[in-house]
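Final report, results section. Input specification for complex C-07:
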Amino acid sequence: MNQLKNLIGVEKIESMFAEDIEYFYPRKEAGKKKPKRKLRIEHLYWIPSLIYSRTYSILPRILKDIFFCLSIIHKSPSSKLFARTRYDELRTLIDIKISALALKRVRANTLDNVKETFSSGSYTTNLLNLSELDTLINDVINYANPSHAGARPYFKDGKNKKIEGSFSAYYTFSKKDIKKINLIISKGLDEDFNYHLSALAGYKCTLKDISYSLSIVYGENSNSEMHQDTYASVAKGFIYLQDVYDGNSPFEYLEGSYLDATYRSNQTNKAVLNNDLHSSGSTRLRGQELQEAVKKYKLKTFTGSKGLFVLANTAGYHRKGAHNSDKPRIILACGVKRKGVFSKLIINLLQVIKFKET
Ligand SMILES: [Fe+2]
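Structure output:
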C-alpha cells in the first residue's frame, strides 16, 4: 500500500498544467540578451570533447566506422559497407564483455542479485522520503528553461507528422540542487545500489555521478517507439513522483534485450541498409518487428506508486508506455555519463586490480 503523501510541488504543476500549458514552454525573454558567461578554468575541459565531436561530424562515413568504432557517439555503422558485416555485432559483444567486468568487484553475498540486474537490464527500489524533494521541484521550474531532451512531438518514422497533444518539458537541476537530491535519495537506498547502477552503466559509478531533470510529459512522443539508445550500455533512471499506472506513461523495457548482440545489431544494420536515417541512430522497432520482439523478450511495464525508482540499461529496447490520462506524467529523469568502450575498460580494469589488492 502506498504510504506516501502527494508532493505539493507535483500537485501544483498538475493544476498549472491544466490551467495554462504555455507556462511550461521554453521562455524567450524578449529584448534580453543572454548574459555573458564568464570563462572558467573548467570550460577548458570542454575543448578536447568539442574537437572530438567536431572531427566525428566532418569525417566521411567509412572513416567514422574505422576511427570511432568503439566510441559512444558512434551509435550505428555509418557506411553500408560495414552494415553488411558483423561490425556492429562485434563491437556490441565487446561492450557486453567489458561492461560485465563491472560485476567483478561485487561482494559475494549480493553477486547473484547484481548479475540478475545486468542480464535483465533493470533494477527497481522504492524511495520513502520524497517529500524532502518538494522545494527543489518547486524551484527548478522557475530557474531552469525547459527542453524536450530528445522527446520530440512526432514518431521517428521519417514522416515527421506532428502528434496532436504531445508535450514534453525537461528542467535540468543546478549542480547545487543535484547534490541536495543525491543526499536526500541516498538516505532511502540499499547499500548495494551502486553495484546495480555500475552493472547497468557498464562501469564503476556511484549515486554521486547521477544528474537529474524534472520531466513533465503528456501524450505520446518519439520515446513512445520501442528503441535502443545506442549500441553500448547506458544507465538511465526514472523516479516516479506520482502513482504511475498502465496508461500514464509507465517506463517499459524488453527484458534481456541488451545481451542479444546479434538481434540488436541485425535491427541496426537493417535500418542503415534501408536508409532509415531516423531509426539507425537509436534503432527503432515498429509493426511486425515490434510484435515479434515482444514475443521474443518479456515486456516489462514498470507501474507503481510514487517513490518507485527504476534504473535501466537503455542500450536494451525500451519506450515510454501509452499515455491516456488527463494529467501529465511527472518524474525525476536521471542518468550517469555515457562512456565509450575504452573508458569503461580502463575504469573496470583499475577496479579489478584494486579489488584484488584488498
Ligand atoms: Fe531512450
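The domain at 42-357 is CATH 2.60.120.620 (Jelly Rolls). Residues 341-357 form the longest helix (17 residues). This concludes the modelling results for the funded period.
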